[in-house]
Design brief:
heterodimer, A: about 325 residues, mainly alpha, ABC transporter involved in vitamin B12 uptake, BtuC, two-stranded antiparallel ribbon, B: about 250 residues, alpha/beta, Rossmann fold, four-stranded antiparallel beta sheet, 9 helices, 10 strands, globular
Chain lengths: ~325, ~250
């Protein structure tokens, strides 16, 4: 886990980033729309994986914070047509919600934590469903404007064209990914990984474990909130299903597909998720069944995710000590 | 100077009394060994002392301060540390990172979110010094889970001494080690004790280790302190001989 990317990875990241910036020039509306969806799921998933892959907490309630971000952004945009305000407000609301529910959730671990987050997520779902005056109930919120990006007295950039909005999503997503990349390599990231490996040992190393779990939970909530807040300006509506637990399953599936123990896993997984969904949907409306089969096959074939293929190649072919290498192989096989 | 004072601490699990009103004073600079048959309450006593569990009765004072119900990480910061009988390391982290965690925690730098480890030069240097002392510097970049059993035990001890504790409990430090690894561990305990940096309290079954290291021996049986004293006194103690049926002391 070195701080810098290898030269090859740097070139790959630079090429991918340039391709993303050039996309609206070379592709039609639909690929751009799909790219926005992929970026949103990528942000959602790297936040989720800070909890799962790095801190060892499997949350089934991230859709709750996704929805808080989406509804928060939508309510602000309906009142004040300013894109920046809407997104920032959605993120902040999700962060507050994650912090408050996190205080209760991080007291537990393993299946108890997962069930608690599932319950809290469904609680938010029922609020979205039942609090008709505020959320519009099952009709949701409609007519949300894709408000211009406005800095008063300086610039106003119209978002009427989806390509313009695509760039907002792209820049924010890349910034969020970069911030997460730095975070997992920081002392805080190391501390979270220590908690994942052994909670007791971390406590006896002097780490206030619950406080750090709450950090991770709140940051994951902020990322879910950002992902959620990017959705209403794209779709112009928000409806309760985005808070449903099946939405929580999306980052879980994307992360499992891409790999939980590599940084890029959830991002690659988000891409695969939409590509598979898009291709399968052309043939059958029961796309979830096919998707499920593909996920099961991939998880069985690559238990550590697609990105683990590239991970293994980086290890030296002949380690100095054959016995140790055998044990290392054994240990990684067990995982 | 008195480091830890245990005042009639008790702990029961259901009907089983694991520790029954144990009082013990651990002064600075005196290497103490706690011995006793299986189920005597030795590990439970360590758990009470280090905060892994709270006593049902009694009190704990560390350097005169009441720590009976203090959270684990606060005890670590005050200078009270431990190792584990069952292997407890950060298996997916590198060997160096295993030591970095307690070092960063001691410097209060675990919450720093956005800069890389290359900026933590002081902590890295300190962690590498600990690795040097436990003889694992050559393995610093290996994943800890890939180390041999003996090296993992050494690393476990490294994590215990990395917070620079004044008092450190070692739960069976020599179990499952090869003779070479065992002498590395004993040498380390001796050296750190001699330098007066850390006072060790070891729980140990190997009587050779106990009598070669300890300056004071506490014998536990059925949750109570049966006897305590200098090694020579314990060797001659009749009650202790009875508990051990003489077998391990006959040599």
């Amino acid at each position: 886990m070195t701080g810098r990317l290898s030269p090859r990875a740097t070139i790959l990241v630079a090429l991918l980033t340039s391709a993303l910036f050039l996309l609206p020039w070379v592709a039609g509306k639909y690929p751009v729309y799909l790219a926005i969806q992929i970026l949103i799921l990528a942000v959602f998933s790297i936040g989720f994986n800070l909890l799962f892959g790095y801190t060892g907490l499997l949350s089934f309630g991230q859709a709750g914070f996704f929805a808080v971000g989406a509804y928060g952004c939508a309510k602000i945009l309906l009142a004040v047509p300013n894109l920046f305000l809407g997104i920032a407000g959605g993120v902040a609301a999700a962060g507050v919600a994650a912090f408050l529910l996190g205080i209760l959730s991080v007291r537990h671990t393993r299946i108890y934590f997962s069930m608690l987050t599932l319950a809290f997520g469904m609680m938010i779902y029922s609020v979205a469903w039942k609090w008709r005056d505020y959320t519009g109930g099952d009709d949701g919120l409609v007519g949300i404007p894709r408000a211009p990006l406005e800095i008063p007295g300086l610039v106003t950039i119209s978002m009427a064209a989806m390509e313009h909005y695509y760039y907002v999503v792209l820049v924010l997503s890349l910034a969020a990914i970069l911030a997460m990349y730095r975070l997992v390599r920081s002392p805080l990231g190391l501390t979270l990984q220590a908690i994942r490996d052994s909670e007791t040992r971390a406590a006896f190393a002097g780490v206030p474990v619950q406080k750090y779990r709450l950090f991770a939970f709140t940051i994951a909530g902020l990322y879910a909130g950002l992902a959620g807040a990017l959705l209403p300006p794209l779709e112009n509506t928000v409806t309760p299903p985005i808070a449903h637990w099946s939405t929580s399953a999306e980052p879980v599936l994307a992360t499992l597909l891409g790999g939980i123990h590599t940084f890029s896993g959830p991002i690659v997984g988000a891409f695969l998720f939409f590509v598979i969904k898009d291709v399968v949907m052309r043939f059958t409306e029961y796309w979830l069944i096919c998707f499920g089969i593909i996920v099961v096959a991939m998880v069985m074939g690559f238990p550590s995710g697609i990105m683990s293929i590239f991970e293994n190649r980086k290890r030296p072919a002949v380690p100095p000590d054959a016995d140790r290498a055998a044990k290392a192989a054994n240990a990684s096989a067990k995982k | 100077m008195e480091l830890l004072r245990i005042e009639s601490a008790g702990k029961r699990f259901g009907d089983f009394v694991a520790v029954n009103g144990v009082s013990l004073t651990l002064p600075a600079g005196r290497l103490t060994a706690i011995i006793g048959p299986n189920g005597a309450g030795k590990t439970t006593l360590i758990n009470l002392a280090t905060g892994a569990m709270f006593p049902d009765s009694g009190a704990l004072r560390f350097k005169g301060e009441d720590i009976t119900r203090l959270a684990i990480h606060h005890r670590i910061r005050k200078g009270l540390s431990r190792s584990f009988q069952i292997m407890n390391i950060f298996a997916r982290l590198s060997v160096l990172q295993n030591i970095l965690v307690p070092v960063l925690a001691r410097h209060g730098r675990t919450a720093i979110p956005f800069h890389g480890m290359e900026r933590e030069t002081e902590a890295v240097a300190e962690a590498r010094q600990v690795l040097h002392e436990i003889g694992l510097l050559d393995h610093e970049h290996d994943p800890a889970g890939a180390l041999s059993h003996g090296d993992q035990r050494l690393l476990e001890m490294g994590i215990a001494i990395a917070p620079a504790p004044q008092l450190c409990f070692l739960d069976e430090p020599s179990s499952g080690l090869t003779p070479t690894e065992r002498s590395t561990v004993l040498e380390l305990i001796r050296r750190l004790s001699a330098e007066r940096r850390t006072t060790f309290v070891i729980v140990e079954h190997d009587m050779d280790v106990v009598f070669s290291l300890a300056e004071w021996i506490v014998v536990m049986n059925r949750g109570e302190v049966l006897a305590e004293g200098l090694p020579a006194e314990i060797r001659e103690n009749r009650a202790v001989r009875e508990v051990y049926l003489g077998e391990e002391f006959s040599a």
